């Protein structure tokens, strides 16, 4: 773990908290912006409620520690938005250490990150996910990405979302966007349905170029790209009217989201296998859903 110092960990954890604060502020600002517009004018604008959680587990005589803060908004524009940060450390179980790079040699780990999942009230506004993280075992790396899940695709929104992420990738290395877009398309795929979860984005993992500063700067750029483009897409569509049929299709699409997160999502598995807060881990699930 020597190459990934305490200072690296400190700076990464501070960034994830700062990004959390900026995203929460942006979402609350959108709640205020549309507060007087139907159908959002039936209740006050939503605000995030933050709940701290601590992780203390004894396993094999070793203490596991850390914790995080779960931020949850149940508002008018956003039916449910979760923005969580965590910083956890301890040892992997015998089963899980075989799956994590560098953990077979030494099961100790440290991990910090920010995770965002947003389920808008309007079927015209796409759901979205973003997370970035840093994990240290005997190795250390960054991972994360962002992807968007509209009920009905709007090509201009897809193009702008991808363009923002491509700009972040282009500042990292040539070919990064193409590689991480492909990885996203392959990762956010439901094999049992034979379909992707949404319109994609980027996904990357085990990112360690040997230049920590460069990798960290890229991870920050991904967060800033998300923060720059998603509120703009919300503004385009939040005031558009929708029908009961639109709502029905939205709930069915959310069902696909649930299927992926419970069956395939690595972050869900990591959190549950490392003694994370169950409510924070499952905050990605929508408040209402349906299956045809």
SSE layout:
Layout: H1 6-33, E1 49-54, E2 57-59, E3 62-73, E4 78-91, H2 94-97, E5 108-120, E6 127-136, E7 140-149, H3 155-170, H4 176-187, E8 189-190, E9 195-196, E10 201-207, H5 212-237, H6 244-263, H7 266-273, H8 278-281
Antiparallel strand pairs: 1-3, 2-3, 3-4, 4-5, 5-6, 6-7, 7-10, 8-9
Structure overview:
There is one protein chain. By secondary structure, this protein is of the alpha+beta class. It has a single domain, classed as 3-Layer(aba) Sandwich (oxygen-dependent coproporphyrinogen oxidase). The protein contains 8 helices and 10 strands. Strands 1, 2, 3, 4, 5, 6, 7 and 10 form an 8-stranded antiparallel beta sheet that branches. Strands 8-9 form a two-stranded antiparallel ribbon. The mean pLDDT is about 95.
Describe this structure in a few short sentences:
The chain has 292 residues and is an alpha+beta fold. It has eight helices and ten strands.
Strand percentage? 25-35%
Kindly give the count of domains: 1
Q: Give helix % range.
A: 40-55%
What's the SSE pattern?
A: HEEEEHEEEHHEEEHHHH
CATH class: Alpha Beta
Number of helices: 8
Q: Based on the structure given, which CATH architecture is correct?
A: 3-Layer(aba) Sandwich
Poorly predicted regions are: none
CATH superfamily placement: Coproporphyrinogen III oxidase, aerobic
**Within the CATH hierarchy, at the fold level, what is the topology?**
oxygen-dependent coproporphyrinogen oxidase
């Amino acid at each position: 773990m020597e190459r990934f110092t305490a200072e690296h960990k400190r700076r990464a954890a501070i960034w994830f908290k700062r990004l959390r604060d900026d995203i929460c502020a942006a979402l609350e600002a959108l709640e205020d912006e549309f507060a007087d517009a139907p159908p959002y004018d039936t209740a006050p604008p939503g605000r995030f409620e933050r709940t701290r959680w601590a992780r203390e587990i004894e396993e094999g005589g070793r203490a596991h520690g850390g914790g995080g803060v779960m931020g949850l908004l149940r508002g008018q524009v956003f039916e449910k938005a979760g923005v969580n940060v965590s910083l956890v450390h301890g040892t992997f179980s015998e089963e899980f250490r075989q799956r994590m790079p560098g953990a077979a040699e030494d099961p100790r780990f440290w991990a910090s990150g920010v995770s965002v999942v947003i389920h808008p009230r309007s079927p015209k506004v796409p759901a979205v996910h973003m997370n970035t993280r840093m994990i240290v075992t005997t190795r250390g790396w960054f991972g994360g990405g962002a992807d968007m899940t509209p009920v009905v695709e709007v090509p201009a929104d897809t193009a702008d979302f991808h363009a923002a992420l491509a700009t972040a990738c282009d500042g990292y290395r040539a070919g990064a966007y193409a590689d991480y877009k492909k990885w996203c398309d392959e990762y956010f795929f439901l094999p049992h349905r034979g379909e992707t979860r949404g319109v994609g984005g980027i996904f990357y993992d085990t990112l360690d170029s040997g230049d920590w500063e460069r990798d960290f700067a890229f991870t920050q750029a991904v967060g800033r790209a998300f923060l720059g483009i998603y509120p703009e897409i919300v503004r385009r569509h939040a005031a558009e009217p929708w029908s009961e049929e639109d709502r029905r299709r939205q709930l069915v699409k959310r069902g696909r989201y649930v299927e992926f997160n419970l069956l395939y999502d690595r972050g869900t598995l990591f959190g549950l296998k490392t003694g994370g807060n169950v409510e924070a881990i499952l905050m990605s699930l929508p408040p209402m859903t349906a299956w045809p």
